[in-house]
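Workshop exercise sheet. Pairs work together: one partner reads the sequence aloud, the other fills in the structure field after running the prediction. Swap roles for the next sheet.
Pair: D.N. / O.F.
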Amino acid sequence: MCGLIARFYLLLSEHSYICCRNTLKPMLIAVYARDLSKELSRNTLIKVVNYLDSLSSEVWLHTVVSESQVSKKLDVSRYRSFSTFDKSDAVLPDLLISIGGDGTILDTLMIVHDTGVPVLGINTGRMGFLAAITPDNVEKAIDAYMKGAFVIDERSVLELQMSEELFSFKYALNDFVISKKDSSSMIKVHTYLNGEYFNSYWADGLICSTPTGSTGYNLSCGGAILHPKSESFAITPIAPHNLNVRPFVIPDDHILAFEVEGRSKAFLASLDARSISFTPNIQIAIKRAGFNFNLARLKGENFMSTLRTKMMWGVDVRN
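Structure field:
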């Protein structure tokens, strides 16, 4: 039955994939890896760089890589190093390859920012919702990208505004979280939508998640999973005191504002796990950023297949 439905859908829809690469033209590929203490990450990095060299591609290595002792098998001094990209740069890479887990992918937002450079994730971590390519399939994935057999998923980004600029980088791919600090007492988060009072949450904290982040902290706190193209945010309380308070999904063209109070003199604000302390007098607002994060995936892979694989949906676990 599933096969019949899939074929019927293909008759009703058109799939457009980005297929514009000249397979004979060398590409400029940047490579980033966060944790090279893991043998799997080191070996995967060497594998990626050596294979790109064999294709006569120009390779750049992030400073985290170029300043580390990866292995005697890889002479990092041969490659140009980089830290971040900017729209004003004369030359930008065709692709950034991220080696690690989903947290490493989140790091790359600070590297590519609003340049539009696509990111392809090689998963040497655990879950791999964003970094979907396994180390065993590195060459196959690179070949497919060179041939244009890939799709760009435009993922929405959160932008944070505070009355005091406490974050050096104010964007997040996953979520923005307000939580308590230095106290076991719950906090009260007054929430406003487009300037109109919405609700006051008595809880340990509050999560505002993008569709990308909906399968992370948001999901573990009982929030809804959002499709990447849903153009929405999920508001999910953390351990709410009132049991009738439930997660809420809003359009991502809304501006959310927060006021926080509690017994503590300071609270925590987090953007993709980058946390700072703030005081009750700080005013906070979040909105959708004016740019997207371009996540590269191979043709034939999609969000639904990832959900089924990672969360074992459709599997009869009774056997």
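Discussion prompt: The chain has a mean pLDDT of 88. What would you look at next?
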